[in-house]
Design brief:
Blueprint (H helix, E strand, L loop, with lengths): L8 H10 L6 H27 L2 H18 L2 H17 L5 H22 L3
Helix pairs in contact: 2-3, 2-5, 3-4, 4-5
């Protein structure tokens, strides 16, 4: 079974094609938003787990899934989708391991995106 790529190169190429002559400036902006917003959503997951707010928890997981999908962070998208589906079906019971997987995949995605765009 092939391993899921951290970042889908085709997604990055598609983003680069939106502004092909900007020296990756658009891509850097999109990555910067992703890198600054995702930790906020991760904090939101933690807060919702403590407060028991399953609706907001699912929304935060969905947000991570969507933004990671836009950037081609396929492993993170899968982890966020698993977390979202679990929370929808079972509530917040036993989600800690799934949250840890999302955090881990975000770290991998962040490193890989930094490598791909090589900000000056």
């Amino acid at each position: 079974m092939p391993q899921t790529p951290i970042i889908d190169p085709q997604a990055i190429d598609n983003l680069r094609m939106l502004n092909p002559d900007d020296g990756d400036e658009f891509l850097r902006e999109i990555v910067a938003i992703f890198v600054s917003d995702t930790p906020k959503r991760l904090t939101e997951l933690d807060e919702c787990l403590v407060s028991g707010d399953a609706v907001k928890f699912v929304r935060a997981a969905h947000s991570i899934k969507g933004s990671s999908s836009n950037l081609g962070a396929t492993a993170l998208r899968q982890a966020a989708d698993t977390l979202e589906q679990h929370a929808k079906q079972s509530g917040l019971h036993k989600v800690e391991t799934l949250i840890a997987a999302v955090r881990s995949e975000f770290g991998h995605a962040e490193q890989e995106l930094a490598r791909l765009i090589k900000t000056p």
